[in-house]
Amino acid sequence: MAAHLESYDSGKHDEHTVAQLIFQSDPVFNTLVYGKNAVAAVERLIRLGDNYFDSRYTRCAIHEASLVGVIVGFPISEKTEIDRKSGKDFARAMGFFRFLARIPLFVRMDKMMPAAEDENGYYIHTISVDSEQRGRGFGSEMIEQIASEHGALYLHVNRDNEEAIRFYERNGFKRLAEGSMMHKGRELSQVLMSRG
Hints:
Elements: E1 4-7, H1 15-24, H2 27-34, H3 38-48, E2 58-63, E3 66-75, H4 79-94, H5 96-112, E4 122-129, H6 138-150, E5 153-158, H7 162-170, E6 174-183, E7 186-195
C-alpha cells in the first residue's frame, strides 16, 4: 500500500474531511479540548492558519488520489511558539468567552502532559487514518516517511486508547512517561512515547 504525504492545500484537500480525521485521532481528548462541536472548531483553526493545523504542519496521506489519513507535526524546538500561536487562534475559533472558560482546563491538561525534552526531535501532534482504510499499512507508512525526514519522533497518546498504543509500539515507539488529571470524576491520562 503506497501512500505519499503532501502538505495540506485548501484548494486540493477537503477541509471537512481533514478536520474529521483530526477529530477521529482521539475523540475523547478532542471533544474535551475543542468542545461539542469539535470538528467545526478544527475546521475554523485550519482556516485561520498560524496554529497546529497550519499547512506547514499538516500533511495528507494520499493513496490512489484519495485522502486516507493525516499527520500533524513540527520540530520540538518550535513547539512552545506554536502552542502560543495556537492559543490565540483557539480563542478566535471557539469564541473568546468559551475559550476563556476553558483556560483552567487547558492549564491542567498542559501540566499533565509529560514534556519531550529532545529539542532536536519531531513532535507528532496528530496522526489518523480513515476508519475504512485502517489495517492497510497507511499509518505505518506515514510514520516511516516522517521518521526518514526527522529522525527522533515523540507523541502523546491517550492511555485508554490501547489499540493506538499497540500500533505505536509495533512501529518502534517506547513509553517514556505518563501524566494524568481528574476531570468530572474521571481520570484522564496521556502517555509520552518516543522512537529513534
